[in-house]
Amino acid sequence: MTDSERSPEADAEASSGNGDANADPGTLADRVENGELRLYELDDHADAETAATARRLVVERRTGVDLSATGDYAFAAEKARSNIENMVGGVQLPVGVAGPVAVHGEAADGDYHLPIATTEGALVASVNRGCSTIAAAGGATARVTKRGMTRAPVFSVDDVAEGAEVIEWVRENEGRLAAVAEETTRFGELQEVTPYIVGDDVFLRFSYHTGDANGMNMATIATRPAAELVEEETPASLVALSGNLCVDKKPAAINAVEGRGHTVTADVTVPRETVEERLDTTPEAIEAVNTRKNLVGSAKAGSLGFNAQAANVVAGVFIATGQDEAHVVEGSNCITTAEAREDELYASVSLASLQVGTVGGGTDLATQSEALELVGLAGGGDPPGANADAFAEVVATGALAGELSLLSALASRHLSSAHAELGR
Q: Known catalytic residue: 49?
């Protein structure tokens, strides 16, 4: 959950037991059709698999659509209880692998394969070419420069003077806020609270280190008691636990500047002969395309991202590894640079708000867990947060590979011919 509270129906589903494993899906579907049960109540009367089958039967009867492919999924429905409501099956996407690519990071150090789930032909081939080029150049350097999952409640006050009073209290009592927030979590740590006043509105942007979890829900849960303490001790009245200054799943300049999740950058220096042999172009041509397309073109368009295709890689990896796919909005906020030097090409990507985790959410599902194991970064790290940091560095390097390849295809005018050759 993000901006909305869980419904009573969802609470009932989450707290329900396994139901009756002997229940008949057809009979349950009849009871729904007769108005005796609602779709979400099936979990109270059957185990997760049976409930999903019954629900699928109901939908098939109502729509006349055959959902047999949707019903042919690889994970246990019981494992998905915390990930989905009214489950009827699973959606399957092709998963390809790019790499290995050498990453020299602070947390990631070695050769990594990159699983990418996509329906876009030529994407994995493109990223794989970039990975090969980076590997031939000796690998990419990557660093997480900042981390912090944010939640920003909004409070109402009578006027600006009262707002300033609230901010002064917050600055003097950040330790108390941290204490009550951290009582709700094993791994979350409040790093800072940044206040903003807009007339009679006060926003407090809480930032947490969330270990190896994406941490969005962790930050939300931890911020509630902190917000309640602000209400108790100041004239402020809580309006909403999320005031959109977080900012979550929406394009925003504040995330591009201040970051959210992992702020990570990766770069590589590629010898001129490697550029010419593997990418069929020159450093000068890549620099020209990057400057005129990614920088000037993006600026003219008013874009918050200055890159060629970072979202392609971020989205593909997110879906394959069980990340929150809506965070592609912030996660692909990327600036790509390219500079032709005397005997080499320097290229980099900087992703301001890459929100990833290796525990929790969809990372525990069967295929997603396998994909993280393929990367070598499934589960919690030692110390907590090490795996998530390493994963962020690997994803950034994958984005760099994608940028190198696409910029080269444009510089050599091979983009359309590559798609035509692959029949896509």
A: no
Choose, from 41, 44, 109, 120, the residue flagged as catalytic. Answer: 120
* pLDDT > 90? residue 403: yes
Map out the domains of the chain as residue ranges.
Answer: 8-80, 95-146+262-421, 153-240
Per the CB < 8 A criterion, the answer to whether 392 and 334 are in contact is no
- Reply yes or no on whether 419 is catalytic: yes
Question: Is pLDDT larger for residue 401 or for residue 75?
Answer: 401
Cβ partners under 8 Å of residue 85, min gap 6:
9, 10, 13, 40
What CATH number has the domain spanning 153-240? 3.30.70.420
What are the tens digits of pLDDT across the range 255-266? Answer: 999 999 999 999
Return the DSSP state at 292: I
Among 104, 113, 209, 419, the one annotated catalytic: 419
Amino acid at 239: V
C-alpha–C-alpha distance, residues 150 and 246, integer Å: 5
Angstrom distance (rounded) from CA 286 to CA 15: 55
Q: Which residues contact 112 (CB under 8 A, 6 or more apart)?
A: 99, 100, 101, 103, 375, 376, 394, 397
Length of the chain, in residues: 424
Tell me whether residue 96 is exposed, middle or buried, using C-beta atoms within 10 angstroms of its C-beta: 0 to 12, 13 to 18, 19 or more.
middle
Q: Which CATH number fits domain 95-146+262-421: 3.40.50.300, 3.30.160.100, 3.40.50.2300, 3.90.770.10?
A: 3.90.770.10
**pLDDT tens for residues 25-34?**
999 999 999 9
9: buried, middle or exposed (CB in 10 Å: 19+, 13-18, 0-12)?
middle
Picking from 9-23, 72-86, 179-193, 377-391, which range would have the lowest pLDDT averaged per residue?
9-23
Question: Which candidate in 212, 324, 364, 393 is catalytic?
Answer: 324
